[in-house]
Model the fold of this input.
Amino acid sequence: MNFIPYGKQSIDQSDISAVVATLQSDFLTTGPKVKEFEEAIADYCKVKYCVAVANGTAALHLASLCLLSKGDKVLTTPNSFLATSNAILYVGAKPIFIDIAKDGNIDLDLCIKALEEDSSIKAIYGVHFSGNPLNQEKLKYIKERFNIVILEDCAHSIGAQDNGIIAASCTNSDCSILSFHPVKHLTTAEGGAITTNSQEIYEKLLVLRAHGMVKTPDMKPWEYEMRELGFNYRITDIQCALGVSQLKKLDGFIDRRKEIAQNYDKAFKNSFIKPLYTFNGKSSYHLYVVQVDFSSLSISKEELFVKMREKNIGLQLHYIPINKQPYYVSLGYGQENTPVMDKYYEECFSLPMYPKLTNDEQEYVIKTLFEVLK
Ligand SMILES: *Cc1c(COP(=O)(O)O)cnc(C)c1O
Done:
């Protein structure tokens, strides 16, 4: 059995041909493919604007520059990749870590409580963890009642829907971000995007992506003006050619992920291996997370990871609580009251989940997991 990682890309001949065609074209970067990809993403996510950038972290950084000011208090989740809260720090704002709910997402009821108690809170940065979308009813309620900034980190959730609201449509938020890293639903190798329905934010993002540089029709032919401090966060035409090709297959990828989730659910039914949530058609299943009460077993989580690796299966842990990372502890974090997150971190791990995982490979993963845990 070849090594089975927790996630990986699905590339076929049509992707390869699309990339080769761009290599043979006049544009390697910032050509027609960037625009085509942005429009295709906006169309898919039912949102007005999309700006594609170098990676998901750059997307978070630029969104933060548009949405936050220095010193702003921002509610966010400890259960995410580091980039989500790092992007709050990048602009000198202050993350406040809120405990998660049982489904792994930030607990929006606790957010409401925090907002009631502290009217100086400016924003929520939420993550649609594992592909399971945040409750849009609650986001709408929060937006209307407290009039704060909302960012949705949809790095896990392109294609997910809650109540007919598709992820990254920004129906109840100011911006959403996407990532096209190879473990995510579709890939551009490195790559990311910001979506928004605000023309003002869209225009600002375009300027910030390219050094803060502005060129208008009334300027002399050689002229450009730098009006604010921007970056080179451009994505290439080569990457976007891959993205356009991948996006055409996204619905098929998500259907396959849902099949895999249902197979796992069936295998773990009535066992001591508990799916984070039983089959949820809203989720686009970036991850398949299970929880096991290790205190009732003779094996530790560390032993489990090592033994599965020996059997050529890569488990992963999503995520170590961000607020407990040494850098965050050095800033005074780490002592938050997050009992659900703490228990989750003790018990959780992610199983292989990607469209190219075959049924045989999945059966091998399930069989091996039961053997090793017993
Ligand atoms: C992958 C990921 C990111 C960052 O995306 P990159 O493209 O790797 O920079 C941000 N947030 C979450 C939740 C992610 O999973």
